[in-house]
Amino acid sequence: MVTKQTLALSGQASAMVLTKLGEHDLAWIASERGLNAAQDADDPAIIGSLNRSMVHTLQSHGRTEASTRLAERTADNLRPALDAGSARETSVYGTLLLAASMTAARAGDRSAVNELLDEADHHAAQLGQDANHLWTAFGPTNVAVHRVATAVARDDIATAEHHTRQLHPSALPPERRIRYLFDVAMIAVKQDRTGDAIATMLEAEQLSPEQVHNHVMAQQIVAHLRSSRSGRQDPRLAQLDRRTRKTRAAA
Question: Does residue 1 have a pLDDT over 70?
Answer without folding.
Answer: no
